[in-house]
Amino acid sequence: MSDPIRNLEQLVRYHQDRYYNHEPEISDAEFDALWDRLRELDPDNSLFSVVGPDSSDRFPKREHRIPMNSQDKAADPEAFLKWAAKVRHPFYLAQFKMDGAGIELQYEEGRFRYGVTRGDGKVGDDITANVSRMKGVPQNIATNFTGGIRGEVLMSRSVHREHYADKANCRNAANGVMKRKDGVGSDLLEVLCYDAVHDEDDLYFVDEPAKLEWLAQQGFGVVSHRRCETAEEVVALRDEVAAARPELDYDIDGLVVKGPEIDPDDMKRARPERQIAFKFTLEEAITELREVLWSISGHLYTPIGVTDPVRLAGTTVKRANLVNTRAIAEMGLKIGSMVRITKRGEIIPKIESVVTTPEGAVDIEAPDVCETCGTDLIDEGTRLFCPNMQCPKREHYRIRKWIEVLDIKDFGPVLVQKLFESGRVRTIADLYTLTEDDIVGFDRMGEGIARRALRGLQSVKEISLARFIAGFNIEGIGELIGEKAISAGFDSLEAIRDAEPSDMAARTDGIGETTAAALIEGVRTLYGEMTAVLSCGQITIGRTIASRELSGRSFCFTGALHSMKRSEAEALVQAHGGTARGSVGEGLSFLVTNDPEGNSSKLQKARALGIAIITETQFRAMIPNEPAGAG
Ligand SMILES: [Zn+2]
Description:
Elements: H1 4-21, H2 28-41, E1 61-63, E2 73-74, H3 77-87, E3 92-98, E4 101-108, E5 111-117, E6 123-125, H4 128-132, E7 147-154, H5 157-163, H6 170-178, E8 190-198, H7 208-217, E9 225-228, H8 231-244, E10 252-258, H9 264-268, E11 275-279, E12 283-297, E13 300-312, E14 315-321, H10 325-331, E15 334-335, E16 338-343, E17 350-356, E18 362-363, E19 378-379, E20 384-385, H11 392-405, H12 413-422, H13 428-431, H14 436-440, H15 447-459, E21 462-463, H16 465-470, H17 479-487, H18 493-497, H19 501-507, H20 513-535, E22 540-541, E23 554-557, H21 566-575, E24 579-581, E25 590-592, H22 601-609, E26 612-614, H23 616-621
Parallel strand pairs: 2-11, 21-22, 23-24, 23-25, 25-26
Antiparallel strand pairs: 1-6, 3-9, 3-10, 4-5, 4-7, 7-8, 10-11, 12-13, 12-16, 13-14, 13-20, 15-18, 16-17, 19-20
Helix pairs in contact: 1-2, 19-20
The structure holds zinc ion.
């Protein structure tokens, strides 16, 4: 059984991370939909208690004046006309729905004060300095307006082509550039606005058309818009704009349609009902399915469709996501079927449906035994996997996961693979019996590598129980789940092993019976391996519940520390839920040094990237109840 909430939570976390720390793969609207769905299914999910999904520590946070809500969507004329019949606006205002990054401009007494990113919709990053350099943002306006202006940060296609061709698309590029600490490139961005709300006066604007006119008069960039007398006219406009889309200099993904009247109460709804995003039809293509490959990741087998090459949204597509065996069965998909492939935003293309299946097409056969250990695979429809928890494929993956979860430095996947394939390391416990000579024995592994790898391994000495369990890669059991069980009193391996799923679920907030069963079953099966790791004597489980004060933050140390060794400082970071890094790069939260005025390359790089530089004393101050022995 899979747990839909857990899957959704993982998906949200994944896309959050892509959005804030890499490049987003889905549109804001798609992300909103995931976020809303999770809130609906699991309102108490811990994701909602963190301040914003924004994990970037690079900018101060600021609250929005206008909440950034999500929008109702219509993907086809039928859905749109149905909405129009319900809201009965006297006429329609259709605005281009720009595919950029949301921004709120805050004005006080007619002066531009702050530019705030979308963040979680309530609180975002204060990127005022960058926004000041963008086109379409007047520093001062003629009226003494105090309130919020809503817009979209955009990069034009021509700027993208000329300067940022390495970025996947305009939106990703705009999002990256606007969050640069050094502001480089912000002057190439433009803000187009579509909404404004006065702090005190709900009636500041007579109606929506007057608002747009006011924005233009004050010198703001304003999104293209048109008045349509009937809903049918809006449908025709959408077709017209869709056809003109390739020639536009900006990416747009539909129209935002509203009526003329301003309805402040509706705007405050999580999903305003008086306006709708009328999106373009998805980019799609039709091609033939040639073959199905099974991609194996750990113990999971995932189908990938190989198709005749076809042009789709500007790229040539040869592979498409097939999701799972249930989707294959439901579509009646066969090798030789003509299929409809879509690309939503920038997600991997997906096979949506079967157009026709010619006679003689061949059934798709899923593997039925694990190619590694020969165990019969379990096909749950939504996932196909090897159930053997001691399957070598899983063990190999588990060792890699252990290194990743414990944030062990200098112990790379290549080394793990060599050790695993040679048979020297088959379980996590085997890692802790390694000597330098073992490692040096493998081809091209020099003494330096061996020494560093072992030092990395040995530097993590004490971890929380939740992290220890997460390191064993039990399906669906991350650190967070472990922590929940631990805080409910299941605070030792034995307590978890001997628990009953129904009892654990009843006593633990945020853990259902399925998850409880997975955790308990995992600890039961792996209990031997777990105790074997502990009896190596090199790693212990901390007495306290995991400490999370430094969660989401990363630290790099440079130069000599006064009160502890660097390895001890790194262990301290990890013990409090943070990440220790060996080098300075994008996304690092803090560089710790006792010589903040120095000129080492790490310091120079940190300054260039705008990373916070703190002293050892400041670092220690961030850690409450510092464990004895660290100082
Ligand atoms: Zn297997």
